[in-house]
Amino acid sequence: MNKLAERLRAARRRDRRLGFGPADAPQAASRGLLIAARGTDPAGADLALLPDAAAVGDSAALAGVELNPLTSEGAATAEEAGAAFVVYDPDQAEAEALLRVRLDYVLRLPARDIEDGELRAVASLRPTLVIGPAVSDPMPVAALIALRRVGLGVGAPLAVSIPATAGAGLLEVLRDSGVVVLVLESPSAEEVAALRARIAELPVRSRRREDDSPVVTGVRPEAIEDDFDDD
Q1: 3-class SS at 12?
Q2: Mean pLDDT, range 215-220, rounded to an integer
Q3: What is the DSSP string of 45-104?
Q4: Do 106 and 158 touch, CB atoms closer than 8 A?
Q5: CA geometry: angle 64, 70, 75, nearest 5 deg
Q6: What is the pLDDT of residue 1?
Q7: Contact 204/175 with Cβ under 8 angstroms?
Q8: pLDDT digits (tens, 9 = 90+) for 166-193
């Protein structure tokens, strides 16, 4: 299993309520959510989405490179630089660039209307992570429905860009909708630390709510982990 896939699976497992004693420190710190910094590499971020491979070696976080367009040569350069993953737009990518087995691939959905059939086709590519539309705080229900439609279609963990000031309510809604990675645009170390503190205060998600109705999710965490375990 590659590094990003393992990091995502670990985040999901730490979000499980086991019922035996208090949560451990890593669980309290993540609550099933990882923080990604886009364009910068501030202290405290779990992931870094960098604009070129040259910055990968200096990253303290698990680093990936955004490649637009994604080419076979660009993927090879990113891998040689030590990147754990590449981020790409399927409208600007060579199919042959997806063949490097040591890289994880993060698909950023294009900024256009995407039909359900195309989302299912995305699932067949088995992306490690899918970046969906950016969200605002407060989040309209229509935007939540659109996000969950994406999650159900692609069958993969989701990432979304959020405001650095996003409140606990939005964070919990996103987590319960299949989001695993919160992307901040060029954040400071202070913004990352403040977001992590809010995440740590979230309740641990249980598989069933108190009334024993199904947990509201866009992508089942169990399905995600079962998929990882097949590798």
Answers
A1: helix
A2: 38
A3: -SEEEESSGGGGGG-SSEEEEE-SSB-HHHHHHHHHTT-SEEEE-GGGB-GGGGG-TTSE
A4: no
A5: 55
A6: 79
A7: no
A8: 999 999 999 999 999 999 999 999 999 9
Calculate what percentage of the chain has a pLDDT beyond 70.
Answer: 82
Q: How high is the pLDDT of residue 150?
A: 96
Residue from 1, 32, 2 nearest 14 by CA:
32
Segment 135-144 long-range contacts (CB within 8 Å, at least 24 positions apart): 135/160, 135/161, 135/162, 135/170, 135/174, 136/163, 137/162, 137/163, 137/165, 137/166, 137/167, 137/170, 138/170, 139/170, 139/173, 144/173, 144/177
Q: Between residues 138 and 14, which one has the greater pLDDT?
A: 138
Provide CB contacts within 8 A for 202, sequence distance 6+.
Answer: 31, 33, 168, 171, 172, 175
How far apart, in whole angstroms, are the C-alpha atoms of residue 47 and residue 59?
9
Q: How far apart are the C-alpha atoms of 102 and 67, rounded to whole Å?
A: 16
Q: What is the CATH number of domain 3-12+24-229?
A: 3.20.20.70
